[in-house]
Amino acid sequence: MSSFCVIGLGRFGQTIATELEKNGHQVLIIDYNAAVVNALSDMVTNAVVGDPMNPDVLRAAGVKNYDCAVVCFSERINDSIIVTMMLKEMGIKKVVVRANSEIDKKILYKIGADSVVFPEQDMGKKLAYMLDKNDVMEHIRFSDEYSIVEKKVPLSWIGKSILELDVRKRYHINIIAICDNDKGTINISPSPEYCFEASDVITLIGSNKDIDRISKDG
Q1: 154-157-160 Cα angle (round to 5)
Q2: 68/101 same-domain check
Q3: In the structure, what pLDDT confidence band is assigned to residue 212 with cuts at 50, 70 and 90?
Q4: Inter-residue contact 112 to 88 (CB < 8 Å)
């Protein structure tokens, strides 16, 4: 995906639009709130003030020329449904829609949404996990069972090598990177002979239950 149309400019929509533009993508924003659109107009490729519920506004804005549309309404699920249907009828390759409930999700998928996201719910789960595991610094959820976690090295690992600890066999997880906060270095795919230091932050991939075992053992 190289070009995006962001529809609905609440905080979520504004963040999506500006971050995509920062990352080098072409971004079109559409919202009926002229003040918000004008405030962001210099930060994106194209900006349109208009009611996205009006198909003529979408057509005039040229949404068909964009690879992906992101529908970011925070509350108005009926508006999200209508706009999603119009976008799919216009032939948009991919439509991503914000939802607030599982019922919303089911409806949006049935009417053609390619992907449905729950920003508040997902962020809440992530924060709860990080607060519960006070040694976890970052958490990326793959599924209900698997995650990538960035965490402080367990105290019991300091001074020992990956081979000595037999991490893969003992914990059934893989260490994909080690960052030394003191030295500012990153070791990608560390060798089995690597010995852990107190300043290390390790990035792990594996099942949630196996990653939790490391926190308990540490």
Answers
A1: 160
A2: yes
A3: confident
A4: yes
Give CA separation, 133 vs 66, 151, 168, in Å: 41, 9, 21
**CA 175, CA 206: separation in Å to the nearest integer?**
9
Q: State the pTM of this model.
A: 0.65
Per the structure, the count of domains in the chain is 2
Pairing between β-strand 46-49 and β-strand 26-31 as defined by DSSP bridges: parallel
**Same domain, yes or no, for 109 and 169?**
no
Report the CATH number that the domain containing residue 154 is assigned in CATH. 3.30.70.1450
Residue 49, domain CATH: 3.40.50.720
Report which residue type is found at 125. Answer: K
Residues 6+ apart with CB under 8 A from 35: none
Tokens 């789960």 correspond to what residue? Answer: 125
Q: Can you tell me which residue has the tokens 């948009």?
A: 92
Task: Report CA-CA distances (Å) from 210 to 76, 147, 159, 172.
Answer: 40, 10, 22, 7
- Residue numbers of the domain that contains 88: 3-117
